[in-house]
Amino acid sequence: MLATSYKQHPWWWYLGVTLLVRLWYGWLIFPWMWEGDAGEYVGVAAGWLQGEVGDFYWPPGLPALLSSFLGISGISKVSSSLLMLCGWCAWIYAMRYLLGRNPAKWEWRGLWIFGLWPAWIHQAVVPLTHLWVGVFLLLSIYLLRKNTSFGKGVLAGACLLMAIWLRPATILVCVCMLVYVGWKEGINRKLVAVALFPFTGILCWQLFSYHQTGTHFFINKASVYNLYLGNHPETPMYKSWWLGSHAEDWPQFPAFQAEVDSVRALPEVTQSVAYRDLSLLHIAEHPGEFLLRTLNRVRVFWAFDTFTGAWWYPRNNFIGQIILGIDAICYLSFMSICLLFWHPTFSRDKVKELSLLTILAYGLPYYLAFSHPTYHFAIIPLFLFLGEWKKKPTMTLTKWGILFLLIGIQLEWIFHMSSSL
């Protein structure tokens, strides 16, 4: 009876089971739900509700969603988790309409990996940006997959704007999608519709932030600061994100510490410009190191995510280790399945083209600033759209090469994460 029900309503079963898993996980982590970046985002949202503008360090996308939701339901951990669960439902909705009502057997297996993947469970409960970025990118692809009407173009532009406000690095994806639409459909009112929301939304936010702070920065102050952190001469060659998340280790980097202290001694309105100028100066003075760090950042970006396991470590070391192992297995399993059904042939399928374009464009800003596997979260599901799921799975010499390269990246990641700087 249950098997019959599942065959008739697989998406409802998927929604119900994965929501129950996330509700259980939310109950499990409830005391610590707002620790780390999550607490910062909630704090910004709470400030907005009280009329406080904030310091513009964090991008405005998630605080905007949180303040809209918490303003109605009240500021609580339950409310913030409900917002994230709404994001998970929206993600399923977008996948349902992109994959169709009856995905192939192996597509379903890929979907169930996401449903039970610890990193994906964590990101669908704790108020962080990656799930919602993934939702808006999927919706953009869905709206642009056919010859775009003016109305759908406007909605796609709104989704792209929200993705940029959530994670400003998404601006490159937006530019690439606009170029793609112009190439496919010509420069017409549809292209204007897609560009309308991102252009006006970013312009209004830039004017507002300049009016409030008296200084120029793109979306939020952390963007240029991250570029600086990832390209200082003392930045670790492989762990380029380290200085951004381990301030307690700064005394080990005296030149970096002294330079940051000198910038912080400047008037606040000039600090972002100072970080930008120093970033470009360090890159120009050390081009070889920049190139090496960039190559390292590319490999780090495609390693398995350790954020959730590391989040658990100070709370329960054993659970943290288990989650790290499961995350690695889920990541390699999913990517291997996609590789099996990938057939590198020319295709005019817009969903495939937009997905590939997004995958290629999304990571580039992280390759240039600093990188971490967590940052690939939003684009991993797009690999489902590159497969030929009704064809026979194959492993060619090229695919074996890609698989061994991917495994090598994971082993390198494990080695560096288990060793000191």
Notable characteristics:
single chain; 421 residues; 21 helices; globular; mainly alpha
Structural class: mainly alpha
Q: Characterize the largest beta sheet: strand count, sense, and whether it forms a barrel.
A: none
Instruction: Tell me the strand percentage band.
Output: under 5%
Average pLDDT across residues? 92
Question: Count of DSSP helices?
Answer: 21
Number of strands: 0
What is the CA-atom radius of gyration, in angstroms?
A: 22 Å
What sort of overall outline do the alpha carbons produce when their principal axes are compared?
A: globular
Task: Write a structural description.
The model has no long low-confidence stretch (mean pLDDT 92). With 421 residues, the chain is an all-alpha fold. Helix 9 (150-166) runs parallel beside helix 11 and helix 12 packs parallel to helix 15 (268-285). The chain contains 21 helices and no strands.
Give the helices and strands, then pairings:
Layout: H1 2-8, H2 10-28, H3 37-49, H4 61-73, H5 77-99, H6 105-116, H7 118-123, H8 130-144, H9 150-166, H10 171-185, H11 189-213, H12 221-229, H13 242-245, H14 254-264, H15 268-285, H16 287-301, H17 307-312, H18 317-340, H19 350-362, H20 364-368, H21 397-417
